[in-house]
Amino acid sequence: MGRFRKKEKKAAPTINTGSLADLVFILLFFFMVISTMRESTLLVRVVVPQATEVHKIERKSLVSNIHIGPPLPHLVAALGTEPRIQLNDQIADVSEIQTFILAEREARAEADVPFLTTSLRVDREVRMRIVTAVKQELRQVGAFRLNYSTTQTNALF
Amino acid sequence: MVKKSPTINGGSTADLAFLCLAFFMMTSSMDHDRGILRRLPPPLPPDAIPPEIRERNVLPVLVNMHDQLRVQGREIDIRDLRRITKEFFSNPFNDPHLSEQVEREFPHLGMVWTSRGVVSLQNDHGTTYEMYIKVQNELTAAINELRDEMSRAHFGVPFSSLRAGDERRHSIQRAIQMAISEAEPRDG
After folding, report:
1. Terminal Cα-to-Cα distance of chain A (whole angstroms)
2. How many CB pairs under 8 A join A and B?
3. Alpha-carbon distance B115 to B1, whole Å?
4. Which stretch of B144-148, B156-160, B180-184 has the lowest confidence by average pLDDT?
5. Phi and psi for A53 in degrees, rounded to 5?
6. Which of B19, B44, B157, B159 is the most buried (most CB within 10 A)?
7. pLDDT band at B20 (very low <50, low <70, confident <90, very high)
8. A129 in contact with B at a CB cutoff of 8 Å?
C-alpha cells in the first residue's frame, strides 16, 4: 500500500531568518526617532509636583533644565541636606545660572534663541526661597520663557 | 559554467541589530516634559514707578510659610481658589468689589466684556514648592475655564480644540488674559 508508506526521515524544516535583521532594524529606527537621549544623571532628588493644567513641551531640544532638590542619599556627606541646584552634570550656585543660560544660548542656532525655554524641575518639598532666587537670575539674563515641570493628574484634591 | 558567488552568512545581523536596539532603549527616554508654562516679567529699572491700579482690580493672593492661603483678606481653602478667581475676573453681577469690566472689540468675537483685573500673587520664602504649584495651577485652571466658556459660547467648540495658529484662539487669549503678577516674596 503505497498510500501508507512510512515517511522517510526528514530534517526539521527551518524558518528563514534572513528578514529578521530587517525587522529588528525597523524597530531600532522607530525607537531612535521617537526617543531622545537620557539627560544627565541626577545628583539631587527631584519628585516634581502634580498639576492638572499642564502643557506638553513640544521641542525638547529647545529646553534647558534646571534641577533643584536635596542631594541624593549617597551625596549627603559631601553636599549636605539643604536643596541644591544642578546644572548639566554638576552642582552649581545661584550665581552660575546666568553663565549657564548664556552657554545654552550659544549652543543653539540664533533663530531658535527666542524660543528657548527654561524648565524648572524642582522637588515638591523644596522651599520657595531658592526657586525665587533662580527666577530672579533668569529675569536678569532675559530667559523669560519658563516651565514649572509637573506630572499630569486628573484631580488635585 | 558560471560559478556561484560566495554569500556572507547573515544570520548574526539580527543579533547585532538587537544589540543596537537594546543600547538605544537603555540610553534614551521617551517621556515628554510637561508643566505649567509662564512668562517672567522683564527686570524693572530701579526708578520704575508702579502703575496705578484701582484696588477693586487687584485680587491679592497670599501664601504664607505654613502654606496657608489668604485671598481678599480672608483665609480660604485651596479648593475655593478657582471659584473665587473666576468670580473675580468674570464679575457676573457687577459687584463693585470685584474687577471692573470694559467692553472691547476683538476679531471673530465682536464686542465682549473684558476684565481689568490682575491677580497679585505673593508667596513667602518658606512656602513649599508643591503649594506654590497648586496655587499656580488653580489660577491657570480658572483662566482656562473662562476661556473655555467663552469659546463654547461664541464658537460652540471647546477652547482646547482651537489650534495654535487659529485667530479665534488668539482673540480669546487677548480677551481673557493670564493676568498674574508676582510680588517679591517676603520673609515671615
Report:
1. 82
2. 157
3. 91
4. B180-184
5. -95, 65
6. B159
7. confident
8. yes
| Cα A77-A121-B62 angle, rounded to 5 deg | 105
> Quick one: B170 exposed, middle or buried, by C-beta within 10 A (0-12, 13-18, 19+)?
middle
Substitution target from B15, B34, B122 for chain A, most A beta carbons within 10 A: B34
Q: pLDDT per residue over A43-88, tens digit each?
A: 999 999 999 989 888 777 888 899 999 999 999 888 988 999 999 8
- Chain A residues with CB under 8 Å of B128 CB are 124-128
User: Is some CB atom of chain A closer than 8 A to the CB atom of B8?
Assistant: no
The grid coordinates listed for B27 are 540610553
Q: Which three cell numbers stand for residue B183?
A: 510680588
Q: Specify the range with the lowest mean pLDDT, choosing from A114-118, B1-5, B138-142.
A: B1-5
CA dihedral over B90, B96, B100, B102, signed as positive or negative:
positive
pLDDT number for residue B70: 93
C-alpha cell at A60: 525638547
With beta carbons less than 8 A apart as the criterion, state whether A102 and A141 touch: yes
Q: Is B101 exposed, middle or buried (0-12, 13-18, 19+ CB in 10 A)?
A: middle
Q: Are B79 and B92 in contact (CB under 8 A)?
A: no
ipTM value greater than 0.95: no
